[in-house]
Design goal:
Elements (H helix, E strand, L loop, with lengths): L6 H17 L42 E6 L9 E2 L4 E5 L8 E5 L5 E5 L11 E2 L5 E5 L2 E5 L5 E6 L4 E6 L4 E6 L3 E6 L10 E2 L30 E3 L4 E6 L8 E8 L9 E9 L10 E2 L5 E5 L5 E5 L5 E5 L10 E2 L5 E2 L24 E7 L2 E8 L9 E2 L4 E11 L2 E10 L5 E7 L6 E6 L5 E5 L3 E5 L1
């Protein structure tokens, strides 16, 4: 009998086989005009959209109630995304079978599912306006057609944490190891040279640094998705170069002549030190695209100028979120959960700070920031989700039944923090993978155990 195959080798072989399968499929060197669309006008990626605002493209019912629920048969990872035309997408981690599901938003029926090498702190498919997917996975990103067919596979140095459509032709990909490039969204072919935001990593191991991505420690150079201004093709991302004393907030821009069939390039505009360190929480871009919001190591939420990276203001929130704030239309930021809901690996150095994780709203005004309201009675379990009419939804821990903690969703007034409506999630417990809202106002909550609940 030959030697046993290690999990890492098996996963590497799986990636290689998947790449062959993708490349043998529908890859084309022919441009398709406007056949590809920008990101869907729905919850189109892990943080809602390119700017990481955590805000839906619409509102929700005044009193939403359970529409349907189902289990996926495996632990879920990441937030459910949606295409705005009737489908939602959820990734799971499993030893066999499907781990990317396309579900009917109306009734939860499985439209299709496929097996992909998903791995990373948060895996959510990015969706374009026709329901085509761009899926981050171990060692690359794959393009999947709206009906589930594999289209192309792009190998990357590490697992992509940023997968964002800049326009109907260009896809920005940044891996957790800091390898950034722009590719043609239709073919998967390079549209820029690779830019190494964290310098050269001294290993060829695609998994190097992944265990630290959830907590944003220096072992993971780029733990979270960049906040992207698609109008100027500018991305803002936190980077911790190996061996550097402190991380940085980095602004990069894609420059290309769209009137010519030539490659462009990613250029670094500026790098600003984050002297207080940073968490694995994605940066968020302000509504006017003038400010970038980043959580520091102690949890304080700070604003930086999008022009030059200068620090503008900072507000203490009293805890360390694991997830980004949601941005309301009036500029209010509502902080995310500090949880015991994500396994962060054996080197997690803040297990002792597992809670509480209140809900805190802050706003920047006249060059400074201030706290607007705080709900210390709510122990938030995942990312908040804002609406266009100024409300914010949070998933929180409840007492449950028979001493088994449960989960509830609160609809809060963004101006005061008052609970407007409360939904008890039936038979739900454990960690929460994510909370999102599609363009029709359906609320999707996925537990870490792989149960999906939709409210309307």
């Amino acid at each position: 009998m030959g030697p046993a195959t290690t999990p890492r080798v098996a996963r590497t072989l799986g990636v290689a086989a998947l790449a062959v399968a993708f490349l043998a499929g529908c890859t084309s060197h022919t441009e398709s005009g406007d056949a590809r669309l920008p990101q869907a006008a729905s919850w189109s990626s892990v943080t809602g959209g390119p700017s990481n605002s955590g805000r839906a493209h619409g509102s929700v019912s005044q009193t939403p109630e359970l529409l349907w629920s189902r289990t996926l048969g495996a632990p879920a990872i990441g937030v459910a995304s949606s295409d705005g035309i009737g489908s939602s997408f959820q990734a799971t981690i499993s030893e066999r079978g499907c781990n990317l599901f396309s579900l009917s938003a109306d009734d939860g029926r499985k439209r299709w599912c496929t097996r992909l090498p998903t791995d990373g702190p948060r895996i959510t498919a990015t969706v374009d306006g026709r329901g085509s997917l761009f899926v981050p996975m171990f060692g690359g990103v794959g393009a999947v057609a709206s009906e589930g067919e594999n289209r192309w596979f792009l190998p990357t140095r590490g697992t992509p944490t940023t997968v964002t459509l800049l326009n109907n032709r260009h896809l920005l990909v940044i891996s957790h190891q800091g390898a950034a490039k722009v590719v043609n969204a239709h073919t998967g072919l390079d549209a820029s040279p690779e830019l190494r935001l964290a310098g050269r990593i001294g290993t060829d191991d695609r998994g190097y640094g992944l265990p630290w991505c959830g907590i944003g420690e220096r072992g993971c150079p780029v733990p979270g998705p960049a906040a992207v201004d698609t109008s100027s093709a500018t991305a803002y991302v936190t980077v911790w170069t190996p061996d550097a004393d402190e991380p940085e907030l980095v602004a990069v821009r894609y420059n290309a002549d769209d009137s010519a069939a030539v490659d462009g390039a990613l250029d670094v505009l500026w790098r600003a030190p984050l002297a207080d360190g940073r968490l694995g929480v994605p940066a968020v871009l302000s509504n006017d695209r003038n400010e970038v919001y980043v959580h520091s190591r102690d949890g304080d939420l700070a604003a930086y100028s999008a022009v030059d990276g200068s620090r503008l203001w900072s507000v203490p929130v009293g805890y360390r979120p694991d997830l980004p704030p949601a941005l309301l239309p009036d500029g209010t930021l509502v902080t995310g959960g500090r949880t015991t809901t994500m396994w962060k690996g054996t080197d997690d150095d803040h297990d002792d700070d597992a809670g509480p994780s209140p809900v805190v709203a802050v706003r920047g005004e006249d060059g400074s920031g201030r706290e607007l309201w705080r709900r210390d009675d709510l122990q938030q379990l995942t990312n908040p989700a804002a609406t266009e009419d100024g409300r914010v939804l949070v998933a929180v821990r409840t007492d449950g039944v028979e001493d088994v903690p449960g989960i509830a969703v609160h609809v809060l007034d963004g101006g005061s923090g008052e609970t407007l409506h409360r939904i008890e999630v039936p038979a739900a417990g454990g960690p929460v993978s994510g909370l999102s809202i599609d363009s029709d106002g359906r609320i999707m909550l996925t537990t870490g155990l792989g149960a999906v609940y939709v409210f309307d």
